[in-house]
Amino acid sequence: MNIITLLTPKDKTFYLDSQATIRQALEKYDYHKFTVVPLIDKEGHYVTTLSEGDILRYIKNNCNFDIEIAETHTIDFIEKYRPYKALDISSPIQEVIKLSFEQNFIPMVDDRGMYIGIIKRKGIIKYFYEDFKRHYNI
């Protein structure tokens, strides 16, 4: 199996610039309804992930937080509670499957560390379900 068949390409994923403001992140989270997203630097390298929970913890710990702060503070300073690990596109499928037990999606990078998309846990399950159906003529 070639894991490239499971890849959702970068242009079909939601991600944030690692220098985005908290307000920009909140607006995108509100619009897209995702809970965890990859952060990408200006050159296109995968940096880490940011969750809604990371932002909420930041707001909770900064009691004087208001919208003006959200417009000026960037998300790169927010502590990441459980950042997602990225894998290289040449990683073996076993590694992708193992990591999918812990993450809803796996950020994928090329050999230069450039973000190229994600592999969703749902896509992995669907692939094996379809393979199972074919194998057992269901």
Low-confidence stretches: none
CATH homologous superfamily placement: CBS-domain
How many H/I helices?
A: 5
Specify the helix fraction band: 25-40%
Number of domains: 1
Report the CATH topology name: CBS-domain
Shape: elongated
Radius of gyration: 17 Å
Q: How do the strands of the widest beta sheet line up side by side?
A: 1-7-6-5
Oligomer: single chain
Topology pattern, helix = H, strand = E: EEHEEHHEHEEH
Return the structural class: alpha/beta
Which CATH architecture?
Roll
Largest sheet: 4 strands, mixed
Give the end-to-end Cα distance, rounded to a whole number of Å.
Answer: 21 Å
CATH top level class name = Alpha Beta
Short recap of the structure:
With 138 residues, this protein is of the alpha/beta class. Helices cover 37% and strands 21% of the residues.
List the helices and strands and how they pair.
Blueprint: E1 7-9, E2 16-17, H1 22-32, E3 36-40, E4 46-51, H2 52-61, H3 67-72, E5 87-88, H4 93-100, E6 105-109, E7 115-120, H5 121-136
Parallel strand pairs: 2-3, 5-6
Antiparallel strand pairs: 1-7, 3-4, 6-7
Descriptive report:
The structure is a single chain. 37% of the residues lie in helices and 21% in strands. It has helices at 22-32, 52-61, 67-72, 93-100, 121-136, and strands spanning 7-9, 16-17, 36-40, 46-51, 87-88, 105-109, 115-120. The protein has one domain: CBS-domain. Helix 4 links the parallel strand 5 and strand 6. The strands form 2 sheets. Strands 1-7-6-5 form a 4-stranded mixed beta sheet. The protein is α/β, with parallel strands linked by helices and 138 residues long. It has 5 helices and 7 strands, in the order ββαββααβαββα.
